[in-house]
Amino acid sequence: MTEALGVRRRSFASRVVGRGSVVWRMDWLLFGAVVALSAIGTLLVWSATRTWSSIEPTGMAKKHVLNLLIGLALYSAIAVTDYRWLRTYAPVLYAIAVLGLILVISPMGSTINGHHSWILLGGGFALQPAELMKPALVVMLARLLAPASEKGKTKDRPRGSGLALSLAVAGAAAALVMLQPDLGTTMVLMATTGAIIVFAGIRKRWVLAGVLLAGLAAVAVWSLGLLKPYQVARFTALIDPSSDPRGVGYNSTQALVAIGSGEVFGKGLFHGGQTTGRFVPEQHTDFIFTVAGEELGFVGSVTVVALLGVVLLRGARIARMCNDRFSALVSGGIVAWLAFQTLVNVGMTIGIMPITGVPLPFVSYGGTATFANMTAVAILQAIHLRSRPG
After folding, report:
1. Cα distance between residue 177 and residue 171, in whole Å
2. What is the DSSP string of 273-342?
3. pLDDT tens across 19-70, in order?
4. For this UniProt entry, which segments traverse the membrane (predicted)?
5. Reported pTM
6. CA quadruple 24, 25, 26, 27: dihedral, nearest 10
7. Do the Cβ atoms of 359 and 285 come closer than 8 Å?
8. pLDDT digit string (tens) for 311-337?
9. Distance CA 377, CA 385 (A)
10. Could you tell me the residue ranges of all domains in the chain?
C-alpha cells in the first residue's frame, strides 16, 4: 500500500515538474523578466509615494504588492488553460469591456486625478475598464481576422468583411475611451489595431489607404478642435516646452531634470531630491520612469528597458512559433500593445513623445493595468505551452 502510494506521489511530482510537464515547458525567461520588473516597480512605487502616502510610508507599496499578487493568481490560472477558449469567448470578453466603458461615462463613473475613467468599488479600490479593453480588443480582432478553417483550409488573407468589422469594433472601443477622455489609451488601442491588421496579411494598398485615412482623421480632429485644450497643449509642449511653462511644459522639463540628475549610477533608492520633493507629477504611475532615472541612474534605467525588451522579444518568439493564425495574431497584438505603450511612456519622460496618461507596463502603480498586463503575458505563456511539443 505504501509503495503504491509512493508510486502515485512520484507520478504526481513527475507530472508537475518532470520533463514534458507545464513547469518544464514554461517560458521561464519571460516569467522571470515580468517578476523582475514587478519587483523593481514595487521599490520605485514605494520611493515615489513614501513621503505623501495618506496611509503610511509603505501604504501604496503594499497595495501595489496586493495588486501584483492578484495579477499573479490570474497569470497562473490563465497560463495553464487551453488558449483556444479565447476564440470562443472573445465576443463575450469584448462585450463586457464595452459595458464597462459605457458605465464609466454614465453617472456610475468617477473622476480620479482629472480623468473620468474609473468605477469606484469601495475599500479604496477602483476599476479602469479602458485597461480591460486592451486584451479584450486583441482577442476580438484576432478572431475576426483569423476565421475558422473552411473544409480544412484557412484563407491566406482576411476577408474584406472581417477587416471592415474589425475597424468597426476597434473604432467603437476607441470612441468610448475618447469620451472619458483618455487620449493615451486611445492611441494604444489604435496602434494595436493597426499592428494586428498588418500581421493578418492584408494587401499593401489597403495598409496604405488605412495610413492615409488615419492621417486625414488626425488632421480633421486637430482642425475641428475636437481635442481638449490640455491635450493640444501636450502636443505643442513636445515641440516647445516653454509654450506652457507652468503646465505640460513644466512636467516635461522636470521629468528631464529628474532623469538627468541621476547620471550613471543614480542617487540611490529613496534619495532622489526630485522624487522626494514631488517636483514631477504622478511619479508612481505615468512618470515612474523618472524615479528609475534619478535614483537608479542610467544603469538602472537601461536595466528596466532591457527587461521590457526581454518580454517583447520572448513574446515575438512565441508569435513566430504559433501553430495557427489566431494564436499568432493574439501574440503579435499583445507584443504590439506592450511595445507601443512602453515607447509612449518612456518617450514622454525623455521628451520624444507627447505627455499622455499611459503607465509603464509591469512597473507603474495600478490595479486594473496590472491585471491587464498579467493577463496578456499569461496568454502568451498559454500559447507557448501549446505551441511546442511536450
Report:
1. 10
2. HHHHTT-STTTTTTTHHHHIIIIIHHHHHHHHHHHHHHHHHHHHHHHHT-SSHHHHHHHHHHHHHHHHHH
3. 666 777 889 999 999 999 999 999 999 999 988 765 566 778 899 999 999 9
4. 28-46, 66-85, 92-112, 132-148, 160-179, 185-202, 207-227, 296-316, 328-356, 362-383
5. 0.88
6. 120
7. yes
8. 999 999 999 999 899 999 999 999 999
9. 12
10. 28-147+157-387
**Residue linked to cell 479593453:** 133
Task: Compute the C-alpha angle 333/334/335, nearest 5°.
Answer: 90
User: In angstroms, rounded to a whole number, what is the distance separating the alpha carbons of residues 360 and 372?
Assistant: 12
Q: Could you report the per-residue pLDDT of 262-302, keeping only the tens digit for each?
A: 899 999 999 988 888 888 888 899 999 999 999 999 999 99
Q: Which residues contact 9 (CB under 8 A, 6 or more apart)?
A: none
Residue 224 has pLDDT above 80, yes or no: no
Contact residues for 346 (Cβ-Cβ < 8 A; gap 6+): 289, 305, 360
User: 3-class DSSP state for residue 180?
Assistant: coil
Q: Are 167 and 200 in contact (CB under 8 A)?
A: no
